[in-house]
Batch of 3 targets.
Target 1
Amino acid sequence: MSYFTDGRQARAEQLIAIYPEQRSALIPLCHLVQEQDGYLSEEGMVAVAELCGVTPAEVRGTATFYDMLHTEPVGKYLVGVCTNIACLLAGGLELLEHAEGSLGVRVGATTEDGLFTLEETECLADCNIAPCVQVNHRYVRTTTPEQFDALVSELRDGGRASEIPSHGTLIRTRRDVDLAADPGLVAQERAARRAAVEGQS
Amino acid sequence: MSLTDAPKIITARAQYDDSHTLERFLATGGNDGLKKALTMTPEAVQAEVDAASLLGRGGAGFPAGRKWAMLRKADVSYLVVNGDESEPATFKDHLLVERDAHQLVEGVTIASYALQVNQAFIFLRGEFALGLERVQEAINDAYKTGALGTNIFGSGFSLDIVVHPGAGAYICGEETALLEALEGKRGYPRIKPPFFPAAIGLYGEPTVVNNVETMSNLPWIVLNGGAAFAALGAGRSTGTRLFALSGHVRNPGVYELEMVKHTFRDLIFSPELGGGVPNGDVKAIIPGGVSAPWFYPEQLDIPLGQDEVAEQGSMLGSGSIVVMDTNTCMVRAAWRITKFFSRESCGQCTPCREGSGWLERVLWRLENGQGRMEDLDLLLDLCDNIAPGLGWPPQQTTICVLGPSIPSSIHSAISRFRDEFLAHITQGKCPHA
């Protein structure tokens, strides 16, 4: 029985198929585990390892390099407040401090109800609306303490569900072509070009 | 000349609310560049890009045509598009992927045809959730309309594009680290030589890595000709460029401007652009991402061009400009930038891994009034260990340029604002707090 549920097994197999080498699917598959489990679970890493043809340790070793892959559970909403230079100048540290008070947790911690995990992030590339805040990697553009608190209570009440899915769901658009354009044709073209190059030299 | 006279090459479509849709794309000349390219030989398309003298828009500013030329004799190759945009205060590719992903896909297809590559990857930072969805939609649309896949528009050329999400690591913007990430590994930069992507790239094959903005210029260049592009700008800086303006300005944002024709002062103070500094005046600006040495008020009349900025001892880099007003604490600014490098150092090389952490801790105690007089020399000595001589461009002691980029802000801040550092020490607190 496959690890992935709700059609995710087919998406996992598609990810393996669209890369020339299966290990390239490792990080996208980790995102897929996070979509299913909310974080990168131990069992999920084993499943990714099997699909990619590597050991679970290699999956963990790779995943722990990256900020977005969480090997411990996080809240339903991962709230990231940027304090890098453009946001610092706009009061990012102060907004982060406010967020700590408002959510009642320190940076890195999760609220007791499991709803929110607070993070201090590096630049999120939205510096014209600073300080920048993302929830589950969606820009929410709450630059003031009041806007931040309003968003938090909206999320507590189950609002904005269509805009901000639970933590882990990254790309909701499905790739609707399965495999490489035409592997046979691509191979033929490559062979023809190789022959042409050899003919020149 | 008005600031808005120059053509909008890559942001023309972005003025529409529905700029990301296939309908708007097709109604505004979408795929015209690609269709024209497919009637030309790949060599002729390359020649147009050469004629445009298009400099890469990622940060290093290497001529795109020359990057491509390295691959001409190669027999198997990949095109990888760098959309990892993580240099602090850089947010131009964010606009391009969210607002005009079809243009990006068209540009990537043109480049792939010119290079005769049948497999391309668009690597986007994972924090671009919406951008990832928009690019996947554009790819799906392109397959549907015959602009991608087998036998594109009946030309006999075939291409597959895969959009690949990153997972949060600044270092993956470094092209060899990006390739490692794309191979499913930790984002460790590769040592060069021998691992120049054009020689040994993705899966060990020759690979071209180009930035999102570079690719987005191609439909216009093919349609209007490289000469028309080269007629804009001056010197080596041709065409237009996206400038991401942030910090203490009234109108922060992304502005497409003709290269060289305008100055930092125009960008910051023109009512049509930055609109000026709301409180006080300019104290310092960061001209091209946080790896760049700072500029000061007397340097605001430097033109926005690659060589023009380099001649003055800094870099235009990723085209992001941060304005810091007279109320800014420069110790705090240097501390936060250094903290960023410390967090994002991949850890392979000792000068970068250890140096960034030490620098951050020393700056932190200075900012909090616990600094010592000898800390200034200590900071500069640590910086000198990472980039000997503290010149520009920096000397490299590490595998990639992340480490040697760390001293820029610290060296700038101490050189110009030494009195501020001293005030932190003598007053035992941040004078701005």
Target 2
Amino acid sequence: MIGLSHYLILGCILFGIGAYGVIAKRNAVAVLMSVELMLNAVNINFVAAGKYIAPAAGIGQLFAIFVIVVAAAEVAVGLALIIVLFKARKSVNLSDFNILKW
Amino acid sequence: MTLKDISFLLIAGFTIVSALGVVTFKNIVHSALSLVLTFLGVAGIYFQLNAGFVGVVQILVYAGAISVLIIFAIMLVMDTEVNKTNLPNPSLGTSLLGGYIILLLTVTLGASIWFSSFPISAQLAPKDDVGFLANLMLGKYVVPFEIAAVLLLVAVVGAIILAKGAEDK
């Protein structure tokens, strides 16, 4: 019987895969794609928890939609930044971007 | 095992396999196509959860718009041979450490989800899914809705200015 835990565990696995991509990838676009995976995992959790814990409130789906909006904005700005960095450095390798120093 | 359980297992397996493809393919175009499959799988999960509107939005925004944006960016910033564009980190230490940390995170999180019980509600979801969401969005949650709209506008303008460059006056 499939219940809430199965959906949450699916979200957990997807989040783990995305986080691995963020840590282990070097291509900036690949890192952005992994971030998208993590956001999708969070959305699955929102919708599943919304359906099983508070189905009458509908907040889970609403939050999932807001997360999708923010993800779209994030991808647009992130890709624009990557294109600007590529123009300046001729590379999308994250280990070449060490201009932010402290 | 009902039909619903079997379809959940199939869709979940498909989603996880294509998500693994995103992080393992060495060609970034293959990764992007695998990402589209993952988005479609997640949309299938939403349909399974009776969240039809979110599923349709997922297909429209993620599998449609965001993936096209990502593929465009990939083609704009391609600098070497295509089958070497998405290599893992060359230092084995980083990959192993990353894999270890993530395995730890996933196993602990998964176990804690598995062994905890959730307050499952017996209420029924409203019949008119989209109308209910619309009422929430333009009623109780109208301020977050407007903020999201402004955020999208600002992000799009910012992305255009970043990519194109603003003219100095």
Target 3
Amino acid sequence: MQGDVVTAIAAMAAATAATRLAGLVVPRALAGKGRIKAAFDALPAAVLAAIVAPVLLASGWAEMLAGLAVVVAARYLPLIPLIILGVLAAAGARAVLG
Amino acid sequence: MDMQRQTALSDFRAGAMATLPAAVAGVPFALLIGALAAEKGLSMAEAGLMSALVFAGSAQFIGLDNWQSPPAWFLLGLIVFAVNTRHIVMSASILRHMGGFSVPSRVLALLFLADEVWAFAEARAARTRLSPAFYAGLVAFFYASWVLSTMAGVLIGGVIRDPKTYGLDFAFIAMFVGLIAGFRGRPGFALSIGVSAAVATLVHLIAPGPQSIIAGAVAGVAAVTLRPSTGEGG
């Protein structure tokens, strides 16, 4: 292995580890009460929505169409069929709409 | 004791099954990262080391995109930190549900906190106790397949086409949308995802990049937290 490559990989790994361990410095007592608790309870869905929204709303018509299918189907389908539907819808919409 | 071991085993299996689709859909992306790494002059061992130590698809893509010869380690560290800032809130959030973990296992678990691992861990914690065995199951095969597929990508690099052509990026999108739907019973659900989606998309349109995730999430959470209390929690 080349030294400078290993150094660069180590820097990337350290940066990632720093973000993943950062939660450890948040005082535990803070996370359990009142508005802070409400904030944490709302967090998972909000983070996931922020990850998917730009892909669904700002990538193009194919993504918007496939995204609509997935969002509607999410109410009715279990996760695995939903994933299969998403892949097929995106592949299909992209093939047709470019 | 035997009973405990059985519970741990079934928890591990449930975790492994949860990330199985992510492991499968992740293969072509890992192959692509391997191919990109080979193009930048990384050996198979080096590409494997990167996937093993970083284990974050988008950060690896962007890191390799900015890979020079020789690589600028400080810049790469900064870029990866910026891409991964969302993991700061993810780790703070999932730690609330790690009461059943020892301190060393907590630290170890957090090092593997990829988006999918986090999302399924949160979904689990919303329904039942998050156990170390379930978490280990989430990571085990997903991680192994990520590292091995990256190494395979170095070998077969040239033949990989963009996985998006086959809609494979939507495996992750559908996974996340399905997991969002699982949180719909929480107070302020529609408000939080509506505000988050709108702000994230707006920020993305103005300046594409990882900051759209943090901006959206912060706005969505703030909307729920700061709204006047209605007393009915809807």
